[in-house]
Description:
The protein is mostly helical. The chain has one domain (9-77). Helix content is 65%, strand content 0%. The chain is built from three helices and no strands. The protein has helices spanning 8-25, 31-46, 56-77. α2 packs antiparallel against α3 (56-77). The protein is globular and about 35 Å long.
Amino acid sequence: MENKxxxxxxKAMILLQSLICYLREKNVLSRADIExxxxxxxxxxxxxxxxxxxxxSIAAAAATEMRELDDYCGRTYGGKHRRRVN
Length: 86
């Protein structure tokens, strides 16, 4: 393995993904909790909040990562989905 400098954003993403997976594995977070977190991330982008401290492309990338993490946790740990009210 090469000793490359890893950007702090990448380190933070690895830590957060690992933490979410660990909390899900220990049943501290339910799948519904993860879905709610994903929805909140997506809502901030949809609302075009000007208070986001980052560029829109970075926020969109965060939403994509959150959807992928939600899918991964669902496949790996299972659990019930939140009931969708339409």
